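We modelled the chain as a single entity of 324 amino acids. Its sequence is:
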Amino acid sequence: MKNDLFNIQSEKQFTKNALHVFKHQFKNNKVYRSFCDLLYVHPSDVIKVEDIPFLPIQFFKTRNVLSSTEEIQQEFTSSGTTGSITSKHLVTDVALYEESYLRGFHHFYGDIKDYVVLALLPNYLERKGSSLVYMVNDLIQKSKNAESGFYLNNLDDLAQKLIKLDKSGQKILLIGVSFALLDLVEKYQFNLKNTTIMETGGMKGRRKELIRSELHAILSKGFAVKEIHSEYGMTELLSQGYSKGNGIFETPPWMKILTRDTEEALTILDKGKTGGINVIDLANYNSCSFIATQDLGKVYNNNTFEIIGRFDNSDIRGCNLMVL
């Protein structure tokens, strides 16, 4: 399955793989099977991806969402406020997660060895349960550059290193939570030529919320770069979407975004209409690949997508909460 998963080159291949994964998870995932049964959906009824039921993401808070009987190698947990119930993603094949994010990064940005990776995130020891920190920690290791590392609590050293490396012509990935990037540009002014600035979302609990265009305008000015990049991922997914500017995201070939009607959750909307974000992540082969998130967004005709907001009654979440 892994070979098929990472060699998808057409819509037809994606559909074939998605239908295969659906049948596998219907058969082997008790939580997902019960959900499908409640909807009276059987694999014989499903002939296209739009027919597949999408499991509400809240199930990851209260159930063990598994399509495998293999030993659990890693448990990723979402961030949350005190007393809140967090999501958990039980991963039976960490190598599959690693291959997904490494191939995904290479698909959009090239070889990680070409970059120095500077992270404005909690380090691996501070936040072991974070899938994002796990990924960035591994990217730091895979960059094989001694300058790569975590700098959340050391802005002075980070600023000096960033200026020095950028002037040398070194390609840099600066990835971090939004509030930390804002802290950095409030303290220093930059004129970067060789650095990709990538924000991973949110400021709940640390700063006033900003809409993406406001955030990116401040960061663009502070770093003196044309575009601010963004990463779209979550605890419940093993793949990520990336935006290279303007908040317009793309997915790797084994991931797809659909939108659902906000009133009729089983109705898939046409492209260009705002609705709830449904994610197909085929790398979630051993958990659930079909997830109805709490995000609101829009999918465009070229399969890019935009995140517009969240459902009003959804829980507070955001990568920034990892550091509270």
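As a brief sanity check on the tokenised model: The CA atoms of residues 120 and 176 lie 4 Å apart. The chain is about 30% helix and 20% strand.
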